[in-house]
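Hi R.,

As promised on Friday, here is the backbone we talked about, encoded as structure tokens. Could you run it through your design pipeline when you get a chance and send me back a sequence?
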């Protein structure tokens, strides 16, 4: 007696697939994808909660910090019947060294990257010929001051100081020294530096100062001056340098980063006149920026992973389809739907675990759970060990491929396109002997 169980299985002709079943499976596929989109909305909602947490920290700890200045300001009156204006002078030379101390702050499952900074300023102002203010203008040298603008004054300490020509001068809020109408930005610092006598043109006056500030996300410095030399260092392994002034050299390691900017700017104005001591839309010169990026941007990665749900479901349905096409295994449409439901839960599991244990560990746990569930279910459906192992290997390869794809930035499109091309080539090779036109062939009498 021949053992039928050991007999080779011929590929099933396409005519064995009723059109009704194909339609039902297609509808199940669409329904599974719609369920995946609803889970994507959950991911988006959690991402919004994270954004709200970041905004909350910006309000309580400090926003993205922008430090601008220093600038020497001399009040003047263009004519006896005119309102007071301000002659503003950028430094001839400016050195700035900033120590940035970042930390992670959490609120429930959500977090924000905040930092504290200490900036040391050193340089000199050179008194120019004030040709731009016109003849007959009266300068109030006794009311001169140095001004520094910030996004917020949170983080300032009693140790912060300013030195003018070797003499210590206290920092003050802009509105303590200047009228509210003339100081339209409340987060500006001023140091009163009166001249006992009008200085001669070309006179150089040295200054030095220290500022302690707090902020969230990124730190920006806006420089105004002819010669700029700035350095910044911090204990953060994934900084991003931007702005109009890029570093001349920088080093990044697991323990932190160091960066250095230099600039000799002969294009922007070094002396200008303004109707206010400081204005919100004033020219800020060269900007050097450092953003403290997450090593692994959790919610962005989860959002990208959820968008690949269609790839998981389509390839898994295709695998089940090939099982039916190439073997005598028959799978009920409901079993297609249950497989799709299992795969759709991956994105939901990922966001749930990643918020608690991090993206990498969350991905491993979520992928492992879905892989185990789908593989065991496939073994129960097909009752074929080899086919179940093949399906598990396919799904594991898909999870591994997606992890690598999500980790790539520059080459993600290339790798994804090549991967899909290879999958299509494999499907074409496996189905080359299927008699797709069997149903159209006339029956032989």
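Update: got your reply. Pasting your designed sequence below so it's all in one thread:
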């Amino acid at each position: 007696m021949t053992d039928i169980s050991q007999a080779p299985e011929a590929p099933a002709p396409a005519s064995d697939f009723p059109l009704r079943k194909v339609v039902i499976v297609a509808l199940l596929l669409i329904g599974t994808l719609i369920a995946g989109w609803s889970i994507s909305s959950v991911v988006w909602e959690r991402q919004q909660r994270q954004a709200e947490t970041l905004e909350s920290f910006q309000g309580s700890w400090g926003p993205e910090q922008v430090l601008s200045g220093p600038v020497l300001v001399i009040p003047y009156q263009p004519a006896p019947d005119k309102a007071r204006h301000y002659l503003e002078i950028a430094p001839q030379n400016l050195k700035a060294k900033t120590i940035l101390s970042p930390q992670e702050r959490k609120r429930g499952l959500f977090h924000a990257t905040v930092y504290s900074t200490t900036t040391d300023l050193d340089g000199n102002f050179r008194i120019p010929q004030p040709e731009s203010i016109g003849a007959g203008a009266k300068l109030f040298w006794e009311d001169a001051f140095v001004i520094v603008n910030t996004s917020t004054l949170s983080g300032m300490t009693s140790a912060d100081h300013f030195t003018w020509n070797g003499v210590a001068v206290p920092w003050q809020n802009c509105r303590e020294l200047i009228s509210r109408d003339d100081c339209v930005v409340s987060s500006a610092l001023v140091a009163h530096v009166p001249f006992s006598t009008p200085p001669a043109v070309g006179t150089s006056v040295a200054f030095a100062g220290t500022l302690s500030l707090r902020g969230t996300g990124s730190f920006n410095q806006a420089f105004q001056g002819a010669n700029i030399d700035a350095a910044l260092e911090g204990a953060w392994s994934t900084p991003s340098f931007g702005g109009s002034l890029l570093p001349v050299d920088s080093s990044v390691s697991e323990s932190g980063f160091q960066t250095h900017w230099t600039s000799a700017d002969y294009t922007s104005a070094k002396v200008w006149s303004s109707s206010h001591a400081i204005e919100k839309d004033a020219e800020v010169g060269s900007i050097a920026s450092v953003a403290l990026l997450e090593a692994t941007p959790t919610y962005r990665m989860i959002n990208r992973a959820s968008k690949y749900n269609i790839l998981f479901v389509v390839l898994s349905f295709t695998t089940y389809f090939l099982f039916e096409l190439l073997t005598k295994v028959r799978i009920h449409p409901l079993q297609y739907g249950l497989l799709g439901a299992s795969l759709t839960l991956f994105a939901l599991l990922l966001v749930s675990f990643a918020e608690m244990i991090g993206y990498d560990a969350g991905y491993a746990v979520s992928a492992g759970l879905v892989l185990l569930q789908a593989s065991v279910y496939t073994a129960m459906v097909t009752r074929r060990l080899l086919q179940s192992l093949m399906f598990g290997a396919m799904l594991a390869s898909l999870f591994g491929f997606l992890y690598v794809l999500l980790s790539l930035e520059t080459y993600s499109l290339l790798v994804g396109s090549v991967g899909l091309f290879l999958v299509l080539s494999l499907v074409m090779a496996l189905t080359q002997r299927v008699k797709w036109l069997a149903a159209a062939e006339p029956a032989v009498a």
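One thing I noticed while checking it: The CA atoms of residues 30 and 310 lie 10 Å apart.

Thanks again,
M.
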